[in-house]
Design a protein that fits this description.
- This protein has four helices and six strands.
- It is 27% helix and 16% strand.
- The protein has a single domain, classed as Rossmann fold.
- It has a six-stranded parallel beta sheet with strand order 3-2-1-4-5-6, with helices on both faces.
- With 172 residues, the protein is an alpha/beta fold.
Length: 172
């Protein structure tokens, strides 16, 4: 069975972006994200985090820290009865030319056959997230005020993203 899926960037989309200084102790969800994810999940979407974590390759954090951050995100979302289907991250340097770093889609290749591409979305705060979604063939949403973005939908508010997606869903 193919699943309608919401692909989510992590830093600046789900949690506040601390650049390379993120620690488990300073994880802070962006307003409305947990409630919005619950609505999307209840509407039938699978939720997948896809995040570039170059801080590992650059030596700012260890891969163990990334895993601890993801565990904390999972725990916090569980308190809202939100379950992530998958979490993928690329720990490589932006210059590495690896196939798993967004905008390439290598980190999700193993689940592509399980995705309902027509009813799936990528949500992110940067153009690289939009390009990832376009490379994957899903609709793209950018959390931004940047009208020059190539995203299918642009808004700075997560609640508007949720409303847009639920209204756009055709799989029900």
């Amino acid at each position: 069975m193919k699943h309608p899926t919401i692909f989510l960037d992590q830093d600046g989309t789900l949690i506040k972006d601390h650049a390379y200084g993120i620690e488990v102790s300073n994880i802070e969800f962006i307003d409305g994200v947990r409630e919005g994810l619950k609505k999307l999940q209840d509407s039938g979407f699978k939720l997948v985090i896809v995040t570039n974590q170059a801080a590992v390759a650059l030596g700012y954090i260890k891969e163990e820290n990334v895993k601890q951050i993801h565990q904390k995100i999972v725990e916090d979302l569980c308190a809202y009865n939100v379950r992530l289907w998958k979490i993928y991250y690329c720990p490589h340097n932006p210059d590495s030319k690896c196939g798993c770093r967004k905008p390439d889609i290598g980190m999700v290749k193993n689940i592509i056959d399980d995705i309902d591409i027509e009813n799936s979305f990528m949500i992110g705060d940067k153009e690289v997230d939009v390009l990832f979604g376009k490379n994957l063939g899903v609709k793209t949403i950018r959390l931004s005020n940047d009208a020059t973005s190539s995203a299918d939908y642009i808004t700075p508010r997560f609640s508007e993203v949720v409303d847009f997606i639920i209204k756009s869903a055709t799989f029900k």
